[in-house]
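Hello support,

Our group uses your service weekly, and this is the first time we've seen a run hang past the timeout. The protein is NUDIX hydrolase. I'm not sure whether the cause is the sequence or the server load. Input pasted verbatim:
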Amino acid sequence: MNDELKPWSVTASRITYEDRWIRVRSDDCVTADGTVIAPFHVLDYPDWINVIPLMPDGRVLLTREYRHGRGEIVAGLVAGGVEPGDSETGDAAMAAARRELREETGYEASTFVKLLTSYPNAANHSNVVTSWLALGLSKVGEPAFDPGEKVDLLFADLAAILSDLQSGVVIMQSMHVAALYAAESWLRTQAPRV
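Update from on-call engineer: The timeout came from a worker crash unrelated to the input. Re-ran successfully.
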C-alpha cells in the first residue's frame, strides 16, 4: 500500500447546477503533494439500481429504450434511481429494484438476490449502483412508465446475451454488463440445483 496516497483536501465547495435529475458540485481541491485542482466537478446523482429479471424458463427479460446521450435505441436491464420514498422500507436499493421492476415491466419477483454494488464512475460521480437478480417472476399488471419513458421488453437467453456482448453484436452500458456477468457467475455457483 502506498503511504503517500491520500484523499484530496477540499478548500471550497459550491453547487453550480441542480435540477431533479442531477446536482453538479464544484470543489476547489488540493492534492496530498499540494497541487491545486479547481474547480473539480462532481456529479451528485442519487444511487442507482439495475435488475436482471430471470424468467422460470431461464430467459432474461431485457428492456429496449431510447437513450438520448447516444441518440440510439439501446438494450439493457430494468434500471433507475433510488427515490426518496424508497428509503421508508429500510433497504432503499431493494425497494427501488422492486418499484422499477413493476413500473418498467409489470412483473413482480418473489426473491431478489443482491449481486453486487459498484461505483458508476468514482472519478466524478458520488453515487453507487446496486445490481439485483430477480427470481420467481409473475406478471401482475401492465408497465407504468414515467413521463417521456417508453420501454419495449424482450426475452433472451443469458448465454446468448453474453456472447453477443463479447462479439460486439450488442453494446450495453457497462454497469449492466457487469451485472449480467455477476448473474451468470451466481447462477453457475450459487443457484439451487433442481
